[in-house]
Amino acid sequence: MSSIFYIKKEIVEVCKQMYFRGLVSATDGNVSARIGEKEIIITPSNKSKGSIEVQDLVVIDLDGKKISGSLQPSGEYRMHLMVYKEREDVNAVVHAHPPYATAFSVAGIPLMECVLPEVVLSLGGVPLTEYATLYTEELPNSLKKYITDFNAFLLKNHGVVTIGSTVTSAYHRLEKVEHLAQVIYLARNLGKVDVLSKQQFESLMKLREELGFKGPLPQCNTCEKSCVLK
Ligand SMILES: [Zn+2]
What we know:
- By secondary structure, the chain is an alpha+beta fold.
- The protein has one domain (about 5-225): L-fuculose-1-phosphate Aldolase, CATH 3.40.225.10.
- The chain has 8 helices and 7 strands.
- The chain has a 7-stranded antiparallel sheet, with helices on both faces.
- It starts with a helix and ends in a 6-residue tail after the last helix.
- Bound molecules: zinc ion.
- Zinc ion binds near residues 28, 95, 97, 158 and 159.
């Protein structure tokens, strides 16, 4: 695991990327990283991700108790803690409200079709969770059902959560989800979405093994339904 200082710098850099790329507005979004068996660093509440600094970050334990930091931890800390408890391979969680992906969550459409090969290889499907009230146990509970099988999630009428072995890899997944949502939105507007065939999907899975991609196997609705787009 990288040094704590490096991880803090990484979180700040990702926050600024999220804000200046329009993936969050105002004080929305939160980012965290695991820094030991029982501690995580998390962004504070009520602070724009565009102006966040290393000294603003808060350290909490896995029970949500503050260890250090002058600000309060993000109100969504329960969701972050649930991820670290359920997935030992995950060291970072990113949450944002990117417009296209959030629009899919509002429309009730998960991103579960195998459309872009690169996304199938590295990200897999993005399921849609049930609606949950902010800042309550409802949010982690809505995510829990999907947490072992996926690395990215659409939160119903809310936004996106992505996870990874590093802050940067979790953030890259966020960018990928938003890009995928934008491409599918545009293709739907063009009137046609061609999904990959079962054979094309299987070739990608072979490649995935050869390239050593880790994490849950990509899942999609289309292959389960013999690659027929519903
Ligand atoms: Zn949110």
